[in-house]
From TrEMBL:
Gene encoding the protein: thiO
Domain FAD dependent oxidoreductase residues, every copy: 9-358
Organism: Dietzia aerolata
Catalytic activity, EC: 1.4.3.19
Official protein name in the record: glycine oxidase
Catalytic activity line of the entry: glycine + O2 + H2O = glyoxylate + H2O2 + NH4(+)
A Pfam family matched in the record: DAO
Amino acid sequence: MTASAPTRRIAVIGGSVIGLACAWTIARVGLADEVVIHEPDDSGPDGVPTSGAAWVAGGMLAPFSEAWPGEEDVFALGVASLRLWNTFLADLAPHTPPGREIRSATHTHMLAVDDADARDLEMAMSWAEGNDVVVVEGVKGSDLRRVTRRELRAAEPSLARVARAAYRMDSEGAVDNRVLLAALARACRAEGVTWVRGEVGSLDDDDIAGADRIVLAAGAGSAALAGLPIRPVKGEVLRLRARPGCEDAPRGVVRAFVRGRPLYLVPRDGGLVVGATQYEHGDDRQVTVAGVRDLLADAETIFPGIGEYELAEMIAGLRPMTPDNLPILGADPDDPRVVFATGHGRNGIALTPITAATVLAELQNRPIPDAARAAGAGRFRRG
């Protein structure tokens, strides 16, 4: 298909954050006469799915906080997406529900509370700060910096004085995942996107086979539909609501290693999101006693005032993980009519803008972003 060929219908399989962002991006440039999202779950506000990983997510924009030596391609993709978020949010602003804000935090602190965790944190942050992608992608190296205990206390006075090491990143932060989903659904409707509410059993289903192009954004469900190496990994999250007299929640995102376990605290309007456990349990969405216990114990180590908050929601989601922690983006090498936008693991929200840009470039027969090239489906054998 050439860039000038008419496109009558584009089918997007999956209506969570990635599918919504892709559909909106496609529709707003008028690439097709009809853009249709195939998503059976309309259980959330504005008809968004509550069964997807994005409904459960912390919404962190965190390539530096997630940085780890050996994951150069994952880091590069995250940094490239981080650069796109300001424009993405500005374009989405007219569709945000009244009285809500998508952006919930504009900076991140990374902490370690014992010597072993401090060594790991310092190794990861030194690697991230010195990585060439910081220069290539235009993210200021000075945005990532080690901070003293006094500086941490001034920035986040509600935190316990337990940090053996602390870093700050001023280009990260978080978005409110549920406000983001609602805004994207509204934006899609404003551009004429429609929904088909039914399960997709195969790419050969009549509704799908009739499309000129197909965008596969079905998360863990993409494995069965296209033979992709994606597995569901369970993550548990707690949503807390402030009560009168509670200590103020942290002002920004707080990431920590507590006795070797990762933890995040993400501010929300009127509360806090706490995560995240990770279990290789297959299709299991049950919240466990052990998971809640560990999250609350680790969170109280960092933020002692958390005990006065209301435990408003306990929820688990399934992150669609690949073997190398990169998503699968771009054209299917076996069927160029299909474009993949799936397998984002724990970074689905963070990678939303770069994914939408990659899908649009593929559909327009333009070069995809350099950082997305390592995420192509050709790196895996299909089966």
